[in-house]
Amino acid sequence: MHAFRSHTCADLTKDNVGQTVRLSGWVHRRRDHGGVIFIDLRDHFGVTQVLCDADSPVFDAVEHLRAEYCVRIDGTVKARDPELINPRLPTGEIEVYIRDMEILGGVNGDLPLQVFGDQDYPEETRLRYRYLDLRREKMQANMTLRADVVRSIRQRMWNIGFNEFQTPIITASSPEGARDFLVPSRLHPGKFYALPQAPQQFKQLLMVSGFDKYFQIAPCFRDEDPRADRSPTDFYQLDMEMSFVTQQDVFDTIQPVIEGVFEEFGGGHTVDKHWPQISYRDAALWYGTDKPDLRNPIKMADVSAHFRGSGFAIFAKILEQEGTQVRAIPAPTGGSRKFCDRMNKFAQEQGLPGMGYIFWRDGEDGLEAAGPLAKNIGPERTEAIRQQLKLGKGDAAFFLGGKPETFEAVAGRARSVIGEELGLIDTNRFAFAWIVDFPMYEADPETGAVDFSHNPFSMPQGGMAALAGDPLDVMGYQYDLACNGYELVSGAIRNHKPEIMFKAFELAGYGADEVKKRFGGMVNAFQYGAPPHGGCAAGIDRIVMLLADEANIREVMLFPMNQRAEDLMMNAPSDPSPEQLMELGLRVIPQD
């Protein structure tokens, strides 16, 4: 017999009755019934009930077992009495009588968290003792799901002719939207490598090297502020690139892969077949975000025309200023003063003075518009708003005004809250949308300086001619895929022409010498017949987070950092020794 097990804790059935078996695992739960000790023995695969009575030669040893002891047991499989069968367990028809037992790993002291049960523990405790947390049923399921998703993605990419290549982990610093993690060089004192934010330059160089299609499950490293859906240090993505393709070719290639994974692991949720293409500007107008949740049917609208010159002085004066707008958020079935007041309070909690509203109800002469705004702008304008928004009795609309950048994010959050509170969101659905036509550049609100707003290596729509005008009017062949309010995929058709690249970086304040210094390898490569190419990257962690129905990305990562970018289990980041600093030629300057 094998040294540790003849079967896993999920294998045994009535067909094994009478056999002598060997199992290894952890004491999941222990119950002492006075002379008979029952133990739920757990391994990665499942749970088997084992028991020991006074006739067993190891009864005294079994009596001393506690939760999470790691043990090996030998015993005889017996059928449970019909009334004692546990239908919730695959092994619920049998139990194993222990005849021999060996402690493989004991437990010293009290457990900092229980594996059995579904108790909540502070995240600090869970991350400090992550190896215990990962033994819990939900975490085992999440990590197995992650492994299965990655396996499925790889198979799907291989099936459509992509080769998997691995790109370097140590590279040069590159401006790709976040801070780099720098790595000091021992052999070149004073110089630094960087951990790649993404394999961006390498995958483009692969296309220049003549590899038609590429993918990898790539680790990416970014020094970012943490969010519930973003790690502050590292993450994994499905990275892919193709030569001789248009934007639509990229969409047509990746959609079956993503769609197939969500159908395979989506737990019965419906998966949208039609993925609309929405411009960045329309997404901001309609949804207040570039990663809209299309399960929510609410679509915001510009209703400035109905307030311009109206009796509502606040909005009328706002609209006299250049670049301002009044936007409506429809709220089907939200037509009560109580709900409207609650949403007005929500806006105040978000830092705005409030949110105007109108709601429609039965009146003496039919449909009646109610609320302060309705009284100020009059029945004709109110009716025009109702018709534009396609609302009726029992519905409401909320209004925000000003320059869109001052209220757009709050409007987007209000749309989400309204949809959730009114039960408008189809929670049994994965809804996808491509967001396209991103602006290439943005202006710093304080200095007015122009910089890249997205991937700096993207091809501008219109090529060199587009760069002759106002940079803020330039659109890029850049795109994101949104799903249920999260950005899942980001990509672009790349800028493969050196003269366009130099001009694009010049508009963002990078001279030709700096471009050559920072991206010399790619600039040189583009001198030798670079093909048109493009691709995208899909966030593995976020995909699994959605499929696992988790709201926090750390629930689907094995050993994540906490909110302060600390690894409590491994004690990272840690202080370097004086010898290490000396070898690298570094000195730490204390920060006040």
Could you explain how this protein is built, in words?
The longest helix has 23 residues, at 137-159. The strands form six sheets. Strands 6-9-10-24-23-22-19-12 form an eight-stranded mixed sheet, with helices on both faces. Strands 1-2-3-5-4 form a five-stranded mixed β-barrel. Strands 13-14-17-15-16 form a five-stranded antiparallel sheet. The radius of gyration is 30 Å and the shape is globular. The mean pLDDT is 94. Helix content is 30%, strand content 25%. The N and C termini lie far apart (64 Å). With 592 residues, the protein is an alpha+beta fold.
Helix count equals 18
Trace the largest sheet across and list its strands: 6-9-10-24-23-22-19-12
Low-confidence stretches: none
For the termini, the CA-CA separation is 64 Å
Give the rounded overall mean pLDDT. 94
Silhouette: globular
C-alpha Rg (nearest Å): 30 Å
Class from helix and strand fractions: alpha+beta
Q: Report on the biggest sheet.
A: 8 strands, mixed
Share of helical residues: 25-40%
In short:
It contains 18 helices and 24 strands. It has 592 residues and is α+β, with helices and mostly antiparallel strands. Helix 4 packs antiparallel against helix 6 and helix 4 (137-159) packs across helix 17.
